[in-house]
Amino acid sequence: MSTATTLPEPTASKRPQLAHLTAVLDDLRAKGTFFRLRVLDDQQAPVCHYDGREVINLASNNYLGLCNHPKLIEAALEATRTLGVGSGAVRTIAGTMKIHMELEEKIAAFKGVEACVVFQSGFTANAGTVSSILGKEDFILSDELNHASIIDGARLSRAKIKVFRHKDVAHAEELLKEVQNEPGRKLIITDGVFSMDGDIGPIPALCDLADKYGAIMMVDDAHASGVLGRNGRGSVSHFGCTDRVDIQVGTLSKAIGALGGYVCGSRDLIDYLYHRARPFLFSTSHPPSVAATCMAAFDLLEAEPERIDRLWANAKYFQDQLRSAGFNIGGITTPATETPITPIIIGDGRATMDFSRALFDQGLMATGIAFPTVAEGKGRIRCIMTSEHTKPQIDKALEILTATAKKTGVGLA
Known about the structure:
The termini are far apart. The protein is built from 15 helices and 13 strands. Helix 4 runs parallel beside helix 12 (288-303) and helix 5 (122-133) packs parallel to helix 6. The chain has two domains: 32-61 and 305-408, Aspartate Aminotransferase, domain 1 (Alpha-Beta Complex); 70-303, Aspartate Aminotransferase, domain 2, CATH 3.40.640. The strands form three sheets. Strands 3-9-8-7-6-4-5 form a seven-stranded mixed β-sheet, sandwiched between helices. It is of the alpha/beta class. The model has no long low-confidence stretch (mean pLDDT 94). The chain has helices at residues 19-31, 70-83, 91-95, 98-111, 122-133, 148-157, 169-179, 203-213, 235-238, 267-276, 278-281, 288-303, 306-325, 349-361, 391-408, and strands at residues 47-50, 53-57, 115-119, 139-143, 160-164, 186-191, 216-220, 247-251, 261-265, 341-347, 364-365, 367-369, 379-384.
């Protein structure tokens, strides 16, 4: 006989302490930018089911289709069978398993650097690294469109933050000149690929500045990992700057298809992060299944470069067709995409979210992005092409986009 206690049904709280949160949500609803999470019912794939509806999926970061690749699935299952479902501790106490070290060694060899440390996410890799290597006497020069994890890491470091105009190397140098004689270290940091516009950072020119002024050079390669460079080694490889970039951050959650982030660089940098990076020190390490999955993914990048070729071919076709149809996918007042990230610029936040919902109703998952993720007036539908989309799927997506734009009067120039 069951002895389980029956809990009362939850009721709406009458306490006023969090009323300010309700006010913010009410404001989002008034502006038309409030959203509810869409729920994926099956695998992350070019065509899948969200909220029970079959849709063509242009919203995921699964660039190379590795989220459900059979070799990655088998690697995860085998690691689980032999090593269990969890590590049981943080890395510095009892949670460093041999498979974690093997993954870090594989990534370091792949990136052509001395060492690597894996974090629980790309966000913690950025935030944990920036906040630990600098202090209040130091300076950070950061692109104005850098990812939120870089911004948060900079704030946590308590360093003095100088923001240069997007990809404006001359402005970055002006700021460096202002502080070159100040005590403290200087860090230049940029995204390799900017996640909202899809453009590529000016890494060689920023490396020149770092060399000229003795600054630390750091690149966040989250959206370049598996996409740019030889076999997907990233934007630093793409520009041949591996020996000029002191800190490379990457992700295991996008093209790699699993979960986590990593930092690559010198042996001393990684040993220092082992001792001082707070997300590393105070978070339980990855389950063995995740580490095994990631290693299998890096093997596939080496063995199947044609996946990256397909990704770029699909992206070019999709973007060419969008331009021909009259969609604004960047340029003039907005950075032009240079990667498979394809923003359809709408502008108004409410119009952006309404357009995204209309697309979903017609069978296309293409997420609306509005303030505060992007600046006010810069709302867009962010589409991401993958290597696994077929031409008929892409053509159907284009058909839905064009028909919906004409019906709603939104999206087309």
